[in-house]
Specification:
By secondary structure, this protein is an alpha/beta fold. It has one domain: Dihydrofolate Reductase, subunit A, CATH 3.40.430. It has 5 helices and 10 strands; from the N terminus they run ββααβαββαβαββββ.
Length: about 200
């Protein structure tokens, strides 16, 4: 079955963006960049990867899911289809197709429940599904996340969009697969969900 992978940059105090969705404080230079671009080239916006000559190998993701606020970050720069090489699904209960300039055959705006959509995607053949953000969507999909890949930067934001928005208390265990510390100060850790073990009756 396909995995849902929450792959995201996060500050030391647990924020994935500033209060207004800012993410420019995260370092984009340093020895961590080559490693993350090699492991997750499909998570680089299409036009940026093309400009940098980064080849997308399609070995990890073929679909990305995101909330409207995450998607809208690129709109002021004219990035209306940020991941043209992936199937893109944007969740919103208030926006319509009229809010997306131009037509994009591989971008779907939906008001359907994220859990239902992700479970349907998981039941279909394909590669992993990337949960791009944001925190509200991650909370809704917390029970569906199979793998966490956290790029922790040596920064304190103080405020902003958390890795997970507050939600119902539902402890979930993950097992660490790997942690790599880079000279840039960035630490990339990868975790997989632990199977639920139930006590015998």
């Amino acid at each position: 079955m396909r995995e849902l992978v929450y792959y995201v940059a996060v500050s030391l105090d647990g924020y994935i963006a500033g209060p207004g969705g800012e993410f420019d404080a995260f370092p984009v230079e340093g020895d961590h960049m080559a490693a993350q671009n090699q492991r997750f080239p499909d998570a680089i916006p299409t036009v940026i990867a093309d400009a940098m000559g980064i080849q997308r190998n399609g070995t990890m993701f073929d679909t990305v899911v995101m909330g409207w606020n995450t998607y809208a970050v690129g709109l002021p720069a004219g990035m209306t289809s940020p991941y043209q090489h992936l199937e893109q699904i944007v969740f919103s209960r208030t926006r319509t197709e009229a809010d997306i300039p131009g037509g994009h055959p591989n971008l779907t705006l939906t008001d359907e429940g994220p859990v239902d959509v992700v479970r349907r995607l998981k039941s279909q053949p394909g590669k992993a599904i990337w949960l791009c953000g944001g925190g509200q969507l991650a909370t809704q999909l917390a029970g569906e996340i199979d793998r966490l890949v956290l790029k922790r930067s040596p920064l304190l934001f103080g405020d902003g969009i958390p890795l997970f928005a507050p939600g119902a208390y539902q402890p979930s265990a993950f097992r660490e697969l790997s942690t790599t510390a880079f000279g840039s100060g960035v630490v990339i850790s990868e975790y997989v969900r632990q199977p639920v073990t139930r006590a015998p009756n």
